[in-house]
Backbone:
Protein backbone atom coordinates (compact mmCIF):
# COMPACT_ATOMS: atom_id res chain seq x y z
CA UNK A 1 0.00 0.00 0.00
CA UNK A 2 1.45 3.34 -1.07
CA UNK A 3 0.71 6.26 1.22
CA UNK A 4 0.55 9.63 -0.54
CA UNK A 5 1.18 12.62 1.68
CA UNK A 6 -0.98 15.60 0.73
CA UNK A 7 0.90 18.93 1.19
CA UNK A 8 -0.58 21.14 3.88
CA UNK A 9 -1.78 24.74 3.44
CA UNK A 10 1.58 26.14 4.54
CA UNK A 11 3.50 24.08 1.97
CA UNK A 12 1.07 25.11 -0.80
CA UNK A 13 1.41 28.77 0.20
CA UNK A 14 5.21 28.57 0.17
CA UNK A 15 5.20 26.92 -3.24
CA UNK A 16 2.87 29.61 -4.62
CA UNK A 17 5.15 32.31 -3.25
CA UNK A 18 8.14 30.61 -4.86
CA UNK A 19 6.28 30.46 -8.18
CA UNK A 20 5.40 34.16 -7.90
CA UNK A 21 9.03 35.08 -7.21
CA UNK A 22 10.13 33.05 -10.24
CA UNK A 23 7.51 34.78 -12.39
CA UNK A 24 8.63 38.22 -11.18
CA UNK A 25 12.23 37.32 -12.03
CA UNK A 26 11.14 36.23 -15.51
CA UNK A 27 9.23 39.50 -15.99
CA UNK A 28 12.50 41.43 -15.72
CA UNK A 29 14.05 39.38 -18.52
CA UNK A 30 13.89 41.50 -21.72
CA UNK A 31 13.23 38.45 -23.92
CA UNK A 32 10.29 37.32 -21.78
CA UNK A 33 8.98 40.90 -21.64
CA UNK A 34 9.14 41.15 -25.45
CA UNK A 35 7.37 37.80 -25.94
CA UNK A 36 4.63 38.55 -23.41
CA UNK A 37 3.99 42.05 -24.75
CA UNK A 38 4.44 41.39 -28.47
CA UNK A 39 2.76 38.00 -28.84
CA UNK A 40 -0.66 39.64 -29.12
CA UNK A 41 0.37 41.89 -32.01
CA UNK A 42 2.16 38.96 -33.68
CA UNK A 43 -1.06 36.94 -33.47
CA UNK A 44 -3.01 39.89 -34.87
CA UNK A 45 -0.78 40.28 -37.91
CA UNK A 46 -0.63 36.52 -38.43
CA UNK A 47 -4.41 36.06 -38.35
CA UNK A 48 -4.88 39.11 -40.52
CA UNK A 49 -2.66 37.51 -43.15
CA UNK A 50 -4.60 34.22 -42.89
CA UNK A 51 -7.71 36.12 -43.97
CA UNK A 52 -6.12 36.92 -47.33
CA UNK A 53 -5.87 33.17 -48.08
CA UNK A 54 -9.46 32.27 -47.17
CA UNK A 55 -10.90 33.38 -50.53
CA UNK A 56 -8.44 31.18 -52.39
CA UNK A 57 -8.58 28.09 -50.15
CA UNK A 58 -12.00 27.85 -48.46
CA UNK A 59 -14.81 25.73 -49.88
CA UNK A 60 -17.59 27.97 -48.60
CA UNK A 61 -20.17 28.90 -51.20
CA UNK A 62 -20.53 32.59 -50.48
CA UNK A 63 -21.41 35.69 -52.44
CA UNK A 64 -18.82 38.32 -53.32
CA UNK A 65 -20.34 40.60 -50.68
CA UNK A 66 -19.92 37.90 -48.01
CA UNK A 67 -16.30 37.33 -49.04
CA UNK A 68 -15.57 41.03 -48.70
CA UNK A 69 -17.44 41.13 -45.40
CA UNK A 70 -15.11 38.45 -43.98
CA UNK A 71 -12.22 40.85 -44.56
CA UNK A 72 -14.03 43.69 -42.84
CA UNK A 73 -15.47 41.69 -39.89
CA UNK A 74 -12.21 41.58 -37.96
CA UNK A 75 -11.78 45.34 -38.31
CA UNK A 76 -15.28 46.03 -37.03
CA UNK A 77 -14.48 44.05 -33.90
CA UNK A 78 -11.09 45.75 -33.63
CA UNK A 79 -12.63 49.23 -33.55
CA UNK A 80 -14.84 48.17 -30.64
CA UNK A 81 -11.90 46.55 -28.85
CA UNK A 82 -9.70 49.62 -29.18
CA UNK A 83 -12.35 52.03 -27.94
CA UNK A 84 -13.14 49.70 -25.04
CA UNK A 85 -9.83 48.28 -23.81
CA UNK A 86 -7.85 51.50 -24.28
CA UNK A 87 -9.87 53.53 -21.73
CA UNK A 88 -10.35 50.48 -19.49
CA UNK A 89 -6.58 50.04 -19.22
CA UNK A 90 -6.28 53.59 -17.86
CA UNK A 91 -8.66 52.60 -15.05
CA UNK A 92 -7.89 48.95 -14.28
CA UNK A 93 -4.29 48.71 -15.48
CA UNK A 94 -2.52 47.34 -18.55
CA UNK A 95 -1.93 43.81 -17.17
CA UNK A 96 -5.58 42.88 -16.50
CA UNK A 97 -6.71 44.16 -19.89
CA UNK A 98 -3.85 42.46 -21.76
CA UNK A 99 -4.85 39.12 -20.27
CA UNK A 100 -8.43 39.77 -21.40
CA UNK A 101 -7.43 40.52 -24.98
CA UNK A 102 -5.28 37.37 -25.17
CA UNK A 103 -8.24 35.26 -24.02
CA UNK A 104 -10.52 36.77 -26.69
CA UNK A 105 -7.90 36.14 -29.39
CA UNK A 106 -7.63 32.52 -28.33
CA UNK A 107 -11.41 32.00 -28.41
CA UNK A 108 -11.70 33.70 -31.83
CA UNK A 109 -8.86 31.68 -33.36
CA UNK A 110 -10.23 28.33 -32.17
CA UNK A 111 -13.72 29.28 -33.37
CA UNK A 112 -12.36 30.29 -36.79
CA UNK A 113 -10.56 26.96 -37.16
CA UNK A 114 -13.77 25.07 -36.37
CA UNK A 115 -16.14 27.36 -38.34
CA UNK A 116 -18.89 25.28 -40.06
CA UNK A 117 -20.10 28.16 -42.22
CA UNK A 118 -19.13 31.57 -43.55
CA UNK A 119 -21.50 33.28 -41.11
CA UNK A 120 -19.93 31.53 -38.11
CA UNK A 121 -16.49 32.49 -39.41
CA UNK A 122 -17.54 36.16 -39.56
CA UNK A 123 -18.70 36.00 -35.93
CA UNK A 124 -15.38 34.46 -34.85
CA UNK A 125 -13.44 37.09 -36.80
CA UNK A 126 -15.36 39.79 -34.91
CA UNK A 127 -14.44 38.17 -31.57
CA UNK A 128 -10.81 37.93 -32.68
CA UNK A 129 -10.95 41.55 -33.82
CA UNK A 130 -12.13 42.75 -30.41
CA UNK A 131 -9.15 41.08 -28.77
CA UNK A 132 -6.74 42.21 -31.45
CA UNK A 133 -8.07 45.75 -31.29
CA UNK A 134 -7.30 45.94 -27.60
CA UNK A 135 -3.73 44.82 -28.28
CA UNK A 136 -2.72 48.03 -30.02
CA UNK A 137 -3.31 50.57 -27.23
CA UNK A 138 -2.32 48.11 -24.49
CA UNK A 139 0.92 46.74 -25.96
CA UNK A 140 2.11 50.13 -27.25
CA UNK A 141 1.36 51.89 -23.95
CA UNK A 142 3.03 49.13 -21.94
CA UNK A 143 6.17 49.22 -24.11
CA UNK A 144 6.52 53.01 -24.02
CA UNK A 145 5.88 53.25 -20.26
CA UNK A 146 8.53 50.63 -19.48
CA UNK A 147 11.29 52.62 -21.22
CA UNK A 148 13.84 53.73 -18.62
CA UNK A 149 14.61 56.83 -20.71
CA UNK A 150 11.77 58.77 -22.35
CA UNK A 151 13.91 59.03 -25.51
CA UNK A 152 13.63 55.25 -25.93
CA UNK A 153 9.84 54.95 -25.83
CA UNK A 154 9.57 55.20 -29.61
CA UNK A 155 12.31 52.63 -30.08
CA UNK A 156 10.50 50.16 -27.79
CA UNK A 157 7.31 50.54 -29.81
CA UNK A 158 9.38 50.13 -32.99
CA UNK A 159 10.72 46.80 -31.73
CA UNK A 160 7.15 45.78 -30.89
CA UNK A 161 6.15 46.62 -34.48
CA UNK A 162 9.11 44.62 -35.83
CA UNK A 163 8.16 41.58 -33.75
CA UNK A 164 4.46 41.75 -34.62
CA UNK A 165 4.31 43.05 -38.17
CA UNK A 166 7.60 41.58 -39.33
CA UNK A 167 7.51 38.11 -37.83
CA UNK A 168 3.71 37.74 -37.74
CA UNK A 169 3.17 38.57 -41.40
CA UNK A 170 6.12 36.40 -42.43
CA UNK A 171 5.01 33.36 -40.43
CA UNK A 172 1.57 33.17 -42.03
CA UNK A 173 2.59 32.51 -45.67
CA UNK A 174 5.36 30.18 -44.44
CA UNK A 175 2.86 28.13 -42.42
CA UNK A 176 0.35 28.08 -45.30
CA UNK A 177 3.06 27.00 -47.77
CA UNK A 178 4.21 24.17 -45.50
CA UNK A 179 0.62 22.98 -45.10
CA UNK A 180 0.08 23.12 -48.87
CA UNK A 181 3.21 21.04 -49.43
CA UNK A 182 1.88 18.30 -47.13
CA UNK A 183 -0.87 17.58 -49.66
CA UNK A 184 -3.70 18.44 -47.29
CA UNK A 185 -7.02 19.58 -48.82
CA UNK A 186 -7.33 23.35 -49.20
CA UNK A 187 -10.03 23.47 -46.52
CA UNK A 188 -7.70 21.77 -44.03
CA UNK A 189 -4.88 24.17 -44.90
CA UNK A 190 -6.61 27.39 -43.87
CA UNK A 191 -8.13 25.74 -40.79
CA UNK A 192 -4.69 24.46 -39.82
CA UNK A 193 -3.32 27.98 -40.20
CA UNK A 194 -5.92 29.20 -37.70
CA UNK A 195 -4.90 26.45 -35.25
CA UNK A 196 -1.34 27.74 -35.37
CA UNK A 197 -2.69 31.22 -34.60
CA UNK A 198 -4.56 29.76 -31.63
CA UNK A 199 -1.28 28.32 -30.33
CA UNK A 200 0.32 31.79 -30.51
CA UNK A 201 -2.60 33.30 -28.62
CA UNK A 202 -2.40 30.59 -25.92
CA UNK A 203 1.33 31.18 -25.46
CA UNK A 204 0.78 34.93 -25.06
CA UNK A 205 -2.01 34.33 -22.51
CA UNK A 206 0.19 32.11 -20.31
CA UNK A 207 3.15 34.50 -20.44
CA UNK A 208 1.00 37.49 -19.49
CA UNK A 209 -0.62 35.72 -16.56
CA UNK A 210 2.78 34.70 -15.17
CA UNK A 211 5.02 37.67 -15.94
CA UNK A 212 3.26 40.93 -16.93
CA UNK A 213 3.13 43.73 -14.34
CA UNK A 214 2.09 47.39 -14.65
CA UNK A 215 4.96 49.87 -14.98
CA UNK A 216 5.96 52.28 -12.21
CA UNK A 217 5.22 55.22 -14.51
CA UNK A 218 1.66 54.03 -15.01
CA UNK A 219 1.15 53.39 -11.29
CA UNK A 220 2.26 56.94 -10.40
CA UNK A 221 0.05 58.49 -13.08
CA UNK A 222 -2.89 56.34 -12.05
CA UNK A 223 -2.50 57.42 -8.42
CA UNK A 224 -2.47 61.08 -9.44
CA UNK A 225 -5.54 60.53 -11.60
CA UNK A 226 -7.47 58.98 -8.71
CA UNK A 227 -6.66 62.04 -6.58
CA UNK A 228 -7.77 64.46 -9.31
CA UNK A 229 -11.37 65.60 -9.77
CA UNK A 230 -10.87 66.49 -13.47
CA UNK A 231 -12.66 64.14 -15.89
CA UNK A 232 -10.83 62.41 -18.75
CA UNK A 233 -12.86 64.29 -21.37
CA UNK A 234 -11.98 67.65 -19.85
CA UNK A 235 -8.31 66.73 -19.49
CA UNK A 236 -8.20 65.57 -23.12
CA UNK A 237 -9.73 68.70 -24.67
CA UNK A 238 -6.43 70.62 -24.95
CA UNK A 239 -4.92 67.56 -26.68
CA UNK A 240 -7.42 67.76 -29.58
CA UNK A 241 -4.80 68.85 -32.13
CA UNK A 242 -2.19 66.11 -31.49
CA UNK A 243 -5.00 63.55 -31.17
CA UNK A 244 -6.39 64.61 -34.55
CA UNK A 245 -2.91 64.30 -36.04
CA UNK A 246 -2.26 60.79 -34.69
CA UNK A 247 -5.77 59.54 -35.51
CA UNK A 248 -5.83 60.87 -39.08
CA UNK A 249 -2.29 59.65 -39.80
CA UNK A 250 -3.17 56.17 -38.55
CA UNK A 251 -6.40 56.18 -40.59
CA UNK A 252 -4.59 56.98 -43.83
CA UNK A 253 -1.76 54.55 -43.12
CA UNK A 254 -4.16 51.66 -42.48
CA UNK A 255 -6.03 52.40 -45.71
CA UNK A 256 -2.72 51.70 -47.44
CA UNK A 257 -1.34 48.84 -45.35
CA UNK A 258 -4.45 46.75 -44.83
CA UNK A 259 -5.91 47.50 -48.23
CA UNK A 260 -2.80 46.14 -49.92
CA UNK A 261 -1.92 43.28 -47.58
CA UNK A 262 -5.45 41.90 -47.48
CA UNK A 263 -5.35 41.60 -51.27
CA UNK A 264 -1.69 41.07 -52.15
CA UNK A 265 -2.18 37.33 -52.66
CA UNK A 266 -4.57 38.17 -55.51
CA UNK A 267 -2.24 40.90 -56.80
CA UNK A 268 0.66 38.43 -57.05
CA UNK A 269 -1.65 35.65 -58.22
CA UNK A 270 -2.27 37.74 -61.37
CA UNK A 271 1.40 37.17 -62.23
CA UNK A 272 1.60 33.46 -61.37
CA UNK A 273 -0.05 30.27 -62.49
CA UNK A 274 -0.86 28.74 -59.08
CA UNK A 275 -1.87 29.77 -55.60
CA UNK A 276 1.27 28.06 -54.23
CA UNK A 277 3.50 30.30 -56.33
CA UNK A 278 1.67 33.42 -55.15
CA UNK A 279 2.04 32.28 -51.51
CA UNK A 280 5.80 31.91 -52.02
CA UNK A 281 5.98 35.38 -53.58
CA UNK A 282 4.08 36.89 -50.63
CA UNK A 283 6.39 35.10 -48.17
CA UNK A 284 9.51 36.35 -49.97
CA UNK A 285 8.18 39.91 -50.03
CA UNK A 286 7.57 39.74 -46.27
CA UNK A 287 11.05 38.31 -45.68
CA UNK A 288 12.86 40.85 -47.82
CA UNK A 289 11.18 43.80 -46.12
CA UNK A 290 12.23 42.72 -42.58
CA UNK A 291 15.62 44.52 -42.80
CA UNK A 292 13.75 47.76 -43.52
CA UNK A 293 11.49 47.07 -40.54
CA UNK A 294 14.55 46.51 -38.34
CA UNK A 295 16.00 49.86 -39.43
CA UNK A 296 12.65 51.54 -38.81
CA UNK A 297 12.48 50.02 -35.32
CA UNK A 298 15.78 51.58 -34.21
CA UNK A 299 15.48 54.80 -36.21
CA UNK A 300 13.47 56.72 -33.54
CA UNK A 301 16.64 56.81 -31.41
CA UNK A 302 18.43 58.78 -34.15
CA UNK A 303 15.72 60.66 -36.05
CA UNK A 304 12.64 62.68 -35.18
CA UNK A 305 9.58 60.45 -35.57
CA UNK A 306 7.77 63.24 -37.40
CA UNK A 307 10.41 63.23 -40.16
CA UNK A 308 10.41 59.41 -40.21
CA UNK A 309 6.69 59.40 -40.88
CA UNK A 310 6.98 62.07 -43.56
CA UNK A 311 9.78 60.17 -45.32
CA UNK A 312 7.80 56.93 -45.27
CA UNK A 313 4.63 58.42 -46.73
CA UNK A 314 6.55 60.38 -49.38
CA UNK A 315 8.52 57.31 -50.48
CA UNK A 316 5.36 55.21 -50.56
CA UNK A 317 3.63 57.83 -52.75
CA UNK A 318 6.46 57.99 -55.28
CA UNK A 319 6.85 54.20 -55.57
CA UNK A 320 3.12 53.55 -55.95
CA UNK A 321 2.87 56.34 -58.50
CA UNK A 322 5.40 54.47 -60.64
CA UNK A 323 3.47 51.19 -60.15
CA UNK A 324 0.20 52.89 -61.12
CA UNK A 325 1.58 54.46 -64.30
CA UNK A 326 3.47 51.40 -65.59
CA UNK A 327 1.40 48.56 -64.11
CA UNK A 328 0.02 47.37 -67.44
CA UNK A 329 3.51 47.23 -68.96
CA UNK A 330 5.47 45.58 -66.14
CA UNK A 331 3.19 43.32 -64.07
CA UNK A 332 3.53 40.42 -66.54
CA UNK A 333 6.41 41.30 -68.86
CA UNK A 334 8.83 42.44 -66.12
CA UNK A 335 7.75 40.45 -63.08
CA UNK A 336 11.05 40.92 -61.21
CA UNK A 337 10.84 44.71 -61.61
CA UNK A 338 7.22 44.70 -60.44
CA UNK A 339 8.03 42.59 -57.37
CA UNK A 340 11.04 44.76 -56.54
CA UNK A 341 9.00 47.96 -56.65
CA UNK A 342 6.30 46.35 -54.54
CA UNK A 343 8.88 45.38 -51.91
CA UNK A 344 10.37 48.89 -51.96
CA UNK A 345 6.98 50.44 -51.21
CA UNK A 346 6.53 47.89 -48.38
CA UNK A 347 9.87 49.04 -47.00
CA UNK A 348 8.70 52.67 -47.02
CA UNK A 349 5.48 51.56 -45.32
CA UNK A 350 7.50 50.25 -42.38
CA UNK A 351 8.44 53.82 -41.37
CA UNK A 352 4.89 55.09 -40.74
CA UNK A 353 4.10 51.59 -39.47
CA UNK A 354 6.37 52.35 -36.51
CA UNK A 355 5.47 56.02 -36.11
CA UNK A 356 1.66 55.82 -36.33
CA UNK A 357 1.79 53.51 -33.31
CA UNK A 358 4.86 55.04 -31.66
CA UNK A 359 3.87 58.71 -31.73
CA UNK A 360 0.61 58.36 -29.75
CA UNK A 361 2.37 55.93 -27.41
CA UNK A 362 4.82 58.63 -26.27
CA UNK A 363 3.26 62.09 -26.70
CA UNK A 364 0.21 61.60 -24.47
CA UNK A 365 0.33 61.56 -20.64
CA UNK A 366 0.34 58.16 -18.96
CA UNK A 367 -2.91 58.91 -17.09
CA UNK A 368 -4.95 58.68 -20.30
CA UNK A 369 -2.44 57.25 -22.77
CA UNK A 370 -4.56 54.13 -23.30
CA UNK A 371 -7.60 56.24 -24.18
CA UNK A 372 -5.68 58.34 -26.73
CA UNK A 373 -4.04 55.28 -28.25
CA UNK A 374 -7.41 53.54 -28.41
CA UNK A 375 -9.00 56.48 -30.24
CA UNK A 376 -6.08 56.76 -32.68
CA UNK A 377 -5.92 53.02 -33.32
CA UNK A 378 -9.71 52.75 -33.73
CA UNK A 379 -9.65 55.53 -36.31
CA UNK A 380 -6.89 53.59 -38.02
CA UNK A 381 -8.97 50.43 -38.10
CA UNK A 382 -11.82 52.39 -39.71
CA UNK A 383 -9.28 53.21 -42.41
CA UNK A 384 -8.33 49.53 -42.58
CA UNK A 385 -11.98 48.63 -43.12
CA UNK A 386 -12.32 51.26 -45.85
CA UNK A 387 -9.10 50.17 -47.55
CA UNK A 388 -9.85 46.46 -47.28
CA UNK A 389 -13.36 46.79 -48.72
CA UNK A 390 -12.47 49.33 -51.43
CA UNK A 391 -9.34 47.52 -52.59
CA UNK A 392 -11.15 44.17 -52.62
CA UNK A 393 -13.84 45.77 -54.78
CA UNK A 394 -11.23 47.11 -57.20
CA UNK A 395 -9.52 43.71 -57.26
CA UNK A 396 -12.76 41.84 -57.98
CA UNK A 397 -13.59 44.29 -60.79
CA UNK A 398 -10.13 43.74 -62.31
CA UNK A 399 -8.85 47.28 -61.67
CA UNK A 400 -5.53 46.41 -59.98
CA UNK A 401 -3.78 49.54 -61.29
CA UNK A 402 -6.43 51.72 -59.63
CA UNK A 403 -5.32 50.30 -56.28
CA UNK A 404 -1.89 51.86 -56.77
CA UNK A 405 -3.40 55.19 -57.79
CA UNK A 406 -5.48 55.17 -54.61
CA UNK A 407 -2.40 54.40 -52.49
CA UNK A 408 -0.49 57.27 -54.11
CA UNK A 409 -3.18 59.85 -53.31
CA UNK A 410 -3.67 58.51 -49.78
CA UNK A 411 0.07 58.65 -49.01
CA UNK A 412 0.31 62.26 -50.24
CA UNK A 413 -2.59 63.29 -47.98
CA UNK A 414 -0.93 61.50 -45.04
CA UNK A 415 2.32 63.40 -45.67
CA UNK A 416 0.46 66.72 -45.52
CA UNK A 417 -1.25 65.66 -42.28
CA UNK A 418 2.13 64.84 -40.76
CA UNK A 419 3.57 68.24 -41.60
CA UNK A 420 0.56 70.14 -40.27
CA UNK A 421 -0.40 68.29 -37.08
CA UNK A 422 2.41 66.12 -35.70
CA UNK A 423 4.74 67.80 -33.13
CA UNK A 424 8.51 67.40 -32.66
CA UNK A 425 10.02 66.52 -29.29
CA UNK A 426 12.82 64.84 -27.37
CA UNK A 427 12.92 62.92 -24.10
CA UNK A 428 13.20 66.06 -21.99
CA UNK A 429 10.16 67.56 -23.71
CA UNK A 430 8.14 64.45 -22.86
CA UNK A 431 9.29 64.56 -19.22
CA UNK A 432 8.19 68.17 -18.86
CA UNK A 433 4.90 67.44 -20.61
CA UNK A 434 4.23 64.53 -18.25
CA UNK A 435 5.00 66.69 -15.22
CA UNK A 436 2.62 69.42 -16.38
CA UNK A 437 -0.13 66.86 -17.08
CA UNK A 438 0.26 65.31 -13.61
CA UNK A 439 -0.09 68.78 -12.12
CA UNK A 440 -3.41 69.17 -13.98
CA UNK A 441 -2.12 71.72 -16.53
CA UNK A 442 -3.18 70.06 -19.79
CA UNK A 443 -2.93 73.28 -21.82
CA UNK A 444 0.59 73.84 -20.58
CA UNK A 445 1.46 70.22 -21.41
CA UNK A 446 0.32 70.67 -25.03
CA UNK A 447 2.24 73.95 -25.28
CA UNK A 448 5.41 72.19 -24.13
CA UNK A 449 4.80 69.40 -26.65
CA UNK A 450 4.56 71.77 -29.64
CA UNK A 451 7.44 73.96 -28.45
CA UNK A 452 9.84 71.44 -29.97
CA UNK A 453 12.91 69.65 -28.59
CA UNK A 454 14.42 71.24 -25.46
CA UNK A 455 17.59 69.32 -24.68
CA UNK A 456 18.50 71.54 -21.76
CA UNK A 457 15.45 70.59 -19.71
CA UNK A 458 15.77 68.29 -16.68
CA UNK A 459 15.31 64.55 -16.99
CA UNK A 460 12.55 62.44 -15.52
CA UNK A 461 14.47 61.55 -12.36
CA UNK A 462 15.09 65.24 -11.65
CA UNK A 463 11.44 66.04 -12.29
CA UNK A 464 10.27 63.36 -9.88
CA UNK A 465 12.65 64.65 -7.19
CA UNK A 466 11.32 68.16 -7.80
CA UNK A 467 7.75 66.89 -7.41
CA UNK A 468 8.72 65.16 -4.15
CA UNK A 469 10.38 68.33 -2.87
CA UNK A 470 7.32 70.39 -3.83
CA UNK A 471 5.05 67.95 -2.02
CA UNK A 472 7.30 68.00 1.04
CA UNK A 473 7.40 71.81 1.05
CA UNK A 474 3.61 72.02 0.85
CA UNK A 475 3.35 69.57 3.75
CA UNK A 476 5.79 71.59 5.83
CA UNK A 477 3.95 74.80 5.00
CA UNK A 478 0.70 73.24 6.13
CA UNK A 479 2.34 72.11 9.36
CA UNK A 480 3.78 75.55 10.03
CA UNK A 481 0.43 77.14 9.29
CA UNK A 482 -1.23 74.82 11.77
CA UNK A 483 1.33 75.64 14.46
CA UNK A 484 0.88 79.36 13.82
CA UNK A 485 -2.88 79.07 14.21
CA UNK A 486 -2.53 77.19 17.47
CA UNK A 487 -0.11 79.88 18.81
CA UNK A 488 -2.59 82.63 17.87
CA UNK A 489 -5.31 80.79 19.74
Residues:
Amino acid sequence: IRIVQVPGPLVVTLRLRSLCRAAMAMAKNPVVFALATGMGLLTDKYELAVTSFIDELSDFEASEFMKEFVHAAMYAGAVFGMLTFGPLSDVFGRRVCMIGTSLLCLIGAVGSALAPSETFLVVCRIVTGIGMGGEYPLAASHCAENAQDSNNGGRNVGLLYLFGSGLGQLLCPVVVYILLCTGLPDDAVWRGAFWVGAAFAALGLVLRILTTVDSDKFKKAHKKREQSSVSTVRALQPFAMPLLGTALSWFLYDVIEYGLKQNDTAIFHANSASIKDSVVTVALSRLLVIPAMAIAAFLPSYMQMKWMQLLGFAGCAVTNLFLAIFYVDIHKEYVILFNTLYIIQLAFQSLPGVTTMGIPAVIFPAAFKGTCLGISAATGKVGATVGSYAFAKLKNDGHISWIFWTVTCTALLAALTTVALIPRWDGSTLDLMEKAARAGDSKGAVGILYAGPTKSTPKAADLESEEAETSEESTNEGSLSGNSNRESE
